[in-house]
Amino acid sequence: MYSVYTGNMTTLNVRVDEKIKTKAMEILSSRGLNLSTGINVFLRQVIEEKGLPFIPGDSVLLRKKYDMEVAIAKKGKTYKNTEGLLKAVLK
């Protein structure tokens, strides 16, 4: 959990695409955070991890793998009960 510390604060000015800012604000707001708090959480995680708290692009690759696995599963054979599954497997 993060503690709230208001002493010795500084201002950080960052240029960011307006659409990215708006979307980030919407997501953070849905979780009860404002943009400033979200950025502070991110910076604290950078310090904690001694680097980025994620692998850039990793979530896209994981999503593609997940989507592929779901597509494969949807094409697979389904069984109404365990008996049917065992009968098919033990043929």
What does this structure look like?
The chain is mainly α and 91 residues long. It folds into two domains: 1-53; 55-91. Helices cover 59% and strands 0% of the residues. It has four helices and no strands. The longest helix is centred in the last third of the chain and has 18 residues, at 58-75. The termini are far apart.
Q: What Rg, in angstroms, do the CA atoms define?
A: 23 Å
Number of helical elements? 4
The coarse silhouette is elongated
- Quick check: average pLDDT? 86
Estimate nothing, just give the exact number of structural domains.
Answer: 2
The low-confidence parts are: none
Return the string of H and E elements: HHHH
Helical residue percent?
55-70%
| DSSP E strands, number | 0
Structural class estimated from helices and strands? mainly alpha
Largest sheet: none
Cα distance spanning the termini: 54 Å
Strand content: under 5%
Keywords, separated by commas or semicolons:
single chain; 91 residues; mainly alpha; 4 helices; elongated
Short description:
This protein has 91 residues and is an all-alpha fold. The protein has helices at 18-30, 35-49, 58-75, 82-89.
List the helices and strands and how they pair.
Elements: H1 18-30, H2 35-49, H3 58-75, H4 82-89
